[in-house]
């Protein structure tokens, strides 16, 4: 009988509340709906959530309305404090025992606060940040890095299957932040590589070297990367919008990485430089453009043009 009950849970249509429908959250909500689940979506700026109605989602006016009757609440917001604020707004309608999939890149310290909120309201927390940008999110090909209790995973796994190509489990206790720790390590590489792309193109411009000459030098070798060519193409072809991952969000993640290093006695010079470059690019007006726009941080004023 227990096996049959588990099978029923796994195959039933879930009601999933998606709080935060920006670049990533909207794509995830669409894929959850496409998988046959009921989606109740909310975003602080309602206009960003409204297109999801065409995919069958119910657009809620408040977080509390969005979580009514939810089997799973998925948060995909800017940072940890934002996620906590929104969940506090949703609190009156949260049911004890509801699974909370926390996919915001929140940082290690914030996971403690979110875990305390989950315990206070009887929620089953899954720390589940995702690795990927707009395109893999839209294709349902994200990597889900997850931590949370084995008992109950059958409820959240259909959601992970809808948004991701693979789920990597890192532990049983979401409060230990093992998933978030791994996400920060992975993001440290992504952000460093992004800034390396921008700097190599900026240097090539300054030295009057054709970018193609650089690509010819590394072609087919271990230094050649699909990511390098993709981000370089975005810069060279001036296709920085719509962003796959925005400069302002990259700056936030870089700050979380630097803070995590400092808190654990590690000096991260490259991550600190990445934070400075992303922040400078945002101050230049590139905050909502693709994070490849950190390229412009190498220049003052309009020196990147021409």
Mean of all residue-level pLDDT scores: 94
Which strands sit side by side, in order, in the main sheet? 3-2-1-4-5-6
What is the string of SSEs from the N terminus onward? Answer: HEHEHEHEHEHEEHEHEHHHHH
Which percent band covers the strand fraction? 5-15%
Largest sheet: 6 strands, parallel
Number of strands: 9
Number of helices: 13
Shape: globular
Gap from first CA to last CA: 71 Å
Helix content: 40-55%
Low-confidence stretches: 1-10
Radius of gyration: 20 Å
Structural class: alpha/beta
Helices and strands in order:
Blueprint: H1 2-11, E1 15-19, H2 23-34, E2 38-42, H3 46-49, E3 58-59, H4 63-66, E4 72-75, H5 80-90, E5 99-102, H6 108-120, E6 124-127, E7 130-131, H7 134-138, E8 142-147, H8 153-163, E9 164-171, H9 178-206, H10 211-218, H11 226-236, H12 247-263, H13 269-286
Parallel strand pairs: 1-2, 1-4, 2-3, 4-5, 5-6, 8-9
Antiparallel strand pairs: 7-8
Helix pairs in contact: 5-6, 9-11, 9-12, 9-13, 12-13
Structure characterization notes:
The protein is of the alpha/beta class. Helix content is 50%, strand content 13%. The chain has 13 helices and nine strands. It has helices at 2-11, 23-34, 46-49, 63-66, 80-90, 108-120, 134-138, 153-163, 178-206, 211-218, 226-236, 247-263, 269-286; strands at 15-19, 38-42, 58-59, 72-75, 99-102, 124-127, 130-131, 142-147, 164-171. The strands form two sheets. The protein has a six-stranded parallel sheet with strand order 3-2-1-4-5-6, sandwiched between helices. The chain has a three-stranded mixed sheet with strand order 7-8-9.
